[in-house]
Amino acid sequence: MAQENVNVVARIRPLSNETNDETCIKIDPVSSVITLTTNEKQFHMDKIFEQNAPQEEIFEYIQPIIAAVINGIHGTIFAYGQTGSGKTHTMIGSDENHGIIPRSIEMIFIALNEQSKNRKDNFKFKISCTVLQIYCEKTYDLLNGNEKIEIHSRDILKNAKEVEVKSSNECMKILKCGLEKRKVSGTLMNETSSRSHAILTLTLKTEYFKENKKHERISRLNMVDLAGSENRNHTNNNKTQNFEGANINKSLSTLGQVIREIINPFPNQVISYRSSKLTMILRDSLGGNSKTTVIVNIHSNSKYATETKSTLNFAVNVKNVKNTAILQEFITSKETLTLKAEVQRLGGEIDKL
Ligand code: ADP
Ligand code: MG
């Protein structure tokens, strides 16, 4: 049960060339250091993917988290960055060029189907998903008509509609259907920019028998496409968008604050997870029981130097957060299983009376 730092990956998107603007960063891929050309400040990442890095390469890098989730450990992957920096491209991608989420879903189904075919220990699995969005500090259930729901700090998904999925195709269909309902509104930065945080959670339940004992594992994989982290003043937004921006920034600023509290706590510090919906949901993922990778997406045109600096500062902070991922396995002996079955049977007898 070792402590492990959050893994931080930078992905640099291609420069937008409409203004012949230049980049504001230098990259050393060997030492994984990004240097801001404005002040020569250096930022150490765990890994950097440059502008031509294909989706496969990013997926290959995060695969160990998916493998861990398949084996009963909680995992989280989230994308952080300004609007237009490539978060949705990285997490979801397009039909022709899948991002992390569809690739992960496919990998999970392939692995678990293969295990149930080949293992001789009565291996079974069940996968379900929830899709939520946080918009203006309210949580909505994208699998239930975008209805507003309350989330509870103890059992985050208690009120969310959880849908069992039997194949990766079915899971992707449900996810896409949910994401269509996601709140979008154009800004100058990106016509179809997402103004909400979207959170897909897959719950994997597996079971097998060993020496007359039932082993059950329940792990969760959170995959999060955050709203843009940009400074609102840049985008010339109208009033509604400013209101959205303030609330989006509340969730993101709480995220930054929580991370600072974790890495640099006061004596008896109570971490402010409960100050925003996003941090309530990501509680286990930051300073808790999870393997976590953060992808910071960077749009390195020099006109975005301020946003890039703020994204890189976020990256080096979150890199210092430590998690302890614990195998989520519950073992029941044969005797207990027999007793449970007997209790159930007697319950049925009583109902008949
Ligand atoms: P965000 O979700 O952060 O607002 P998007 O993922 O929508 O940003 O990306 C904005 C635009 O840039 C999209 O048209 C996307 O296809 C393109 N883009 C982003 N990252 C890359 C990349 N690494 N390679 C090619 N195109 C990219
Ligand atoms: Mg997006």
TrEMBL record:
Recorded family membership: Belongs to the TRAFAC class myosin-kinesin ATPase superfamily. Kinesin family.
Organism the protein comes from: Panagrolaimus davidi
Cell location: Cytoplasm, Cytoskeleton
Part of the intact protein present: 1 to 353 of 698
Location of the Kinesin motor domain: 5-321
An individual GO BP term: microtubule-based movement
The name this protein goes by in its record: Kinesin-like protein
GO molecular function annotations of the record: ATP binding; microtubule binding; microtubule motor activity
A GO-annotated cellular component: microtubule
Keywords for the protein's UniProt record, in alphabetical order: ATP-binding, Coiled coil, Cytoplasm, Cytoskeleton, Microtubule, Motor protein, Nucleotide-binding
Amino-acid positions noted as binding ATP in the UniProt annotation, renumbered to this chain: G81, Q82, T83, G84, S85, G86, K87, T88
Main location (coarse class): cytoplasm
